[in-house]
Design goal:
Radius of gyration: 28 Å
Shape: globular
Number of strands: 11
Largest sheet: 6 strands, antiparallel
């Protein structure tokens, strides 16, 4: 055992144990597995630098992306899992199967109907002679039969994708790109069916991965009946799709669509369809089920330990089930000496909290830390289960932190011992209640996350599959406009925008709120989390009006809002882009604001109104920059009132400048994700949502930001002077908010960006002139997706 371990305060918990005996040292291993760890990066197989056709396919896949489809996929995954769960309470598993089969089959039938109807409508007319507006109008006019609300948005999102594919095919045929000029729409739409089914398959399998084990057999049978899964039991059939990565689901669909549209001949298109149809289906992720079972087994074994019995073997049996769900868990798979070392280390460090002589004290400490607030009465068994769960969570987080260590530390026993001890102390600070003496925390403040809140994180539900953690204390805070203005939430918005534009708080008002804190575990889906929070005001539902009220608890948010930065966690740019890409270990908060009710969207289905947002498209294919500025309903109403009263244009533009400055800054940060879409031959699809921004030097990004702000204000000034009635008409529609789309044609800055993104050096001299390029401005009612 490492030298530093003997001084660990967790080995001297006076309130939990009599004086400790001398601690034996864990023998160091001279060597580890000779199998080198192969780092897994996202495959950059989208193109070969010398393959012009592959480059075109990659750019087309990026063009086809639509944020609305990501949202629809996310909602459908949660809806399918909830439908299964609720149906299973009222009937047996076969009955629950039939319920889901009925609703999912309805989506499948409606998609077949619209594809067949479009094929019959356009018949054998060559694509090159069709009108894109005519094809769009046909799909817009299609009215499906009644669908379950959980899948209405999925159908709408896929239908919009089909419409976009059809329009793209017509455009490609007219331009002579590919081999589509003589192709008709009917056979192309028939081939498109082969692409739609895998998308449905991923939605279903992502939902299945969250089902209780008792419901898995009917779900797999349902998948076979729908023709969505082949070789379902073959674990080697295909690589598992990450169950929370909805963007990856759409990305695969767009890639296959691009391959189909740009195939060099009709024969190649047929071969592409054959490859898709005959390919093995993505295997559902059984790792979550294995982890659930392993957690239950570990909890049972901890509860059955005899006095003085070593828990090391129980931990060692648990770790193999944990590794597959960790982001970098594969680094430890097969390295039995590291796993054995970790099991022994954890057994020694946790021995004061397990077993019949120590576990009751830990249970009492968890109750004292606020567990009783989760229910009116907490039984002794509830407290004991919470104690065992706290130990399990500490083990999971310790191993997760070790798995993220670089290879050089994992391969060096002394470095590993020190890093593993540090990982345990960080995990214990998060998952165990305050169990050390005040003098210890005074000397080692890093051993607790909060100096005043004095709560602990509890995995919930207590007696079922653990799906999320909740902080045992509900914190009462006062939110000032100054705080709300600087705290960022998802999608580049601020907490202030959420409170005003989505909760209806009057501008400039202070408010009191109860803050509920949550932590994501492997398998957490936000609609599932909010549905289980039935006793929390504002939650208790899987609808977007509930999970849309969760916000990222970053260190900055926790420090500014709560005065406790240690309760926050780092969040990746991908996770901050939207609520559908949250990863294990990340934390969220919900504000229960007394007297405020969320502003429900005009689209219904218990959706929140959207907050103001800005999306930027850098299209190097057409040499255009698009700014899509969405103004939330209350902001749009204020703008319309000012225009109607003939308010001072300078004051109006000053408000626009404030919005644009902040939104441009948020979207163009090198660490941003989701605010920008880049169509460029050297930007692969998985970097097109903003990942490629890190290639831009700060000076170039600064020039781009400055020029876009100046151009946008000039364009808006002219538009509001000449066509204010268009803005007022858009605001007066029934849709929520308005979208102002500004398109800059051939802006000089694009030539610099093109070269930088291609890896070329920045040309010497001043940047291109910032004079206003040719520009078009349009306004539309509601939120316009790109």
């Amino acid at each position: 055992m490492p030298t530093g371990l003997s001084s660990s305060p967790f080995l001297d918990v006076k309130s939990f144990t009599p004086p400790e005996s001398e601690l034996p040292r864990v023998p160091s291993s001279g060597s580890f597995s000779t199998t080198p760890f192969l780092a897994v990066y996202e495959a950059d197989e989208w193109r070969n630098p010398d393959d012009v056709a592959a480059t075109a396919r990659g750019m087309l896949a990026t063009e086809l992306h639509d944020d609305e489809l990501d949202e629809a996929i996310f909602e459908a995954i949660g809806g399918a899992a909830e439908l299964y769960d609720r149906s299973s309470r009222d009937t047996d598993p076969p009955g629950a199967e039939r319920v889901l089969q009925q609703h999912f089959s309805a989506v499948q039938r409606e998609l077949e109907r619209v594809l067949d109807a479009a094929g019959e409508h356009f018949g054998d007319t060559p694509l090159a002679t069709l009108n894109e507006n005519e094809t769009a109008a046909f799909f817009d006019s299609y009215s499906p039969k009644a669908l379950h609300p959980a899948f209405e948005n999925l159908f709408g999102g896929i239908l919009k994708a089909i419409k976009k594919v059809a329009g793209t095919a017509v455009g490609l045929a007219k331009s002579g790109i590919g081999a589509l000029a003589s192709v008709t729409l009917k056979p192309l739409l028939a081939k498109l069916k082969a692409l739609v089914w895998p998308l449905l398959q991923h939605v279903l399998t992502s939902a299945i991965s969250r089902l209780p084990e008792v419901l898995r057999p009917p779900a797999t049978l349902l998948a076979r009946r729908l023709g969505l899964l082949k070789e379902f039991e073959d674990e080697q059939a295909a690589e598992a799709m990450p169950s929370t990565c909805v963007t990856a689901i759409q990305r695969e669909f767009n890639k296959r669509t691009a391959d189909l549209l740009l195939a060099p001949s009709d024969v190649e298109r047929d071969l592409e369809v054959a490859r898709i149809s005959s390919g093995s289906a993505t295997h559902w992720d059984k790792a979550l089920t294995d982890l659930d079972l392993a957690r239950n087994e570990l909890s049972d074994r901890l509860g059955q330990l005899k006095e003085g019995e070593d828990a090391g073997p129980a931990f060692e049996n648990f770790l193999p089930a944990l590794l597959p769900v960790l982001k970098l868990g594969e680094k430890l798979i097969g390295r039995e000496n590291i796993l054995s070392f970790l099991a022994k280390l954890l057994s020694k460090l946790l021995q004061r909290f397990i077993g019949p002589q120590f576990a009751p004290a830990l249970a009492r400490a968890i109750v004292d830390a606020g567990l009783r607030l989760f229910g009116l009465e907490i039984s002794a068994e509830d407290a004991a289960e919470a104690a065992r769960s706290a130990v399990t969570s500490t083990v999971e987080e310790t191993v997760g932190r070790v798995a993220m260590l670089p290879e050089g530390i994992l391969s060096n026993q002394e470095l590993l011992e020190g890093a593993a001890l540090e990982a345990f102390e960080q995990a214990a600070a998060a998952n165990l209640p305050p169990v050390l003496g005040p003098e210890t925390y005074l000397a080692r403040p890093d051993l607790r996350e909060s100096s005043h809140a004095r709560g602990t994180w509890v995995a919930l539900p207590l007696h079922h599959r653990r799906r999320y953690k909740k902080y045992s204390r509900v914190l009462r805070i006062r939110v000032t406009p100054e705080k709300a203005r600087v705290i960022e939430t998802f999608g580049g918005a601020t907490l202030g925008e959420f409170l005003e534009e989505q909760l209806g708080q009057p501008p400039g008002a202070e408010l009191e709120a109860d803050v509920h804190l949550y932590e994501v575990m492997p398998g957490t889906l936000l609609p599932e989390l909010t549905r289980m929070e039935e006793s929390t005001p504002g939650l208790g539902s899987s609808e977007e009006a509930a999970w849309g009220r969760l916000h990222p608890l970053t260190h900055h948010a926790a420090g500014t809002l709560l005065g406790e930065p240690g309760l926050g966690r780092h969040m990746s740019p991908e996770s901050l882009a939207g609520r559908h890409a949250i990863g294990p270990g990340q934390r969220l908060y919900h504000l229960n604001v007394h007297g405020l009710r969320p502003a429900i969207s005009a689209t219904g289905h218990r959706r929140l109104r959207r907050h103001s947002s800005l999306k930027i498209l850098l299209n190097f294919k057409t040499s255009e920059i698009h700014l899509r500025l969405y103004l939330a309903e209350n902001v749009a109403q204020r703008l319309a009132t000012t225009l109607r009263d003939q308010g001072h244009l300078g004051s109006i533009l000053a408000r626009f400048r404030h919005i644009l400055e902040r939104k441009l800054d948020a979207a163009l940060r090198p660490t941003a994700h989701g605010g920008v879409r880049i169509i460029h031959p050297d930007v692969p699809p998985h970097q097109a949502a903003g990942g490629a921004l890190h290639r831009l030097p700060p000076a170039v990004t600064g020039v781009l930001r400055t020029q876009l702000l100046a151009w946008a204000l000039l364009a808006l000034q002219d538009f509001l002077k000449s066509q204010p009635q268009l803005v007022q008409a858009a605001v007066e529609s029934r849709a929520d908010g308005i979208t102002i789309v500004t398109v800059f044609h051939d802006p000089p800055i694009l030539s610099v960006l093109r070269d930088v993104l291609s890896g070329k050096p920045i040309p010497p001299g001043p940047p291109p002139a910032a004079m206003l390029p040719k520009v078009d401005v349009t306004v539309a009612a509601g939120h316009v997706h790109g």
